[in-house]
Design goal:
The protein is of the alpha+beta class and 188 residues long. The strands form 4 sheets. The protein has a two-stranded antiparallel sheet with strand order 1-4. The protein has a two-stranded antiparallel ribbon with strand order 2-3. β5 and β6 form a beta hairpin. α3 packs antiparallel against α5. The longest helix is centred in the C-terminal third of the chain and has 32 residues. The protein is elongated, with a radius of gyration of 22 Å.
Amino acid sequence: MAGSVSASEVCLAAMTLALLSMAGCIEDKCAACIAVADELEHGLANEKPRNHLDMRHRLDSKGQRRGKVIDYRVSELRVVELLDGLCEKMQDYTLMKIDSTKQQWTKVDNWDNITTNKQEARAYSKDISSYCGRLLEETEDELAESIKSGSVKPGGVSKVLCQDLSRHCKQTSSSSSYEEDDGSEADL
């Protein structure tokens, strides 16, 4: 029948799309998660002290202000300011070869000084930026609650984000070194 699509053509198209979507996947999710956590930790470390949020904008019948004062450290505004733009900042990262067997996510200060293939380095930066978006989408509610509760502190972001919430890393021993999870969780 002219104009109709066979089941094998649909399967072939679906497999092609699946392969194309996997082309931009992050192989070492633990290392990528740690890079995202490092950038978030940088944001936490550079936070400026803020006053409490005064939400007393209404006046009652006696002219007294109504509402509440919210501590900035536990406010939704703080979470938004920390996470907003995080994934765009990840576009400054690329995967650099350390030696023949090891690669590491590195922040690039000047893209003109890249000695490797610049097009490939830019592709890696887009990969980690989209990975960051998927990671935050998966963990945003729990991460926001962790930030507001005070359990996310400078020095502990990668443990909370990469071990506890996303489970992309697991601790190898009593030290603070990490290894990639076995991949039993769904890919991001």
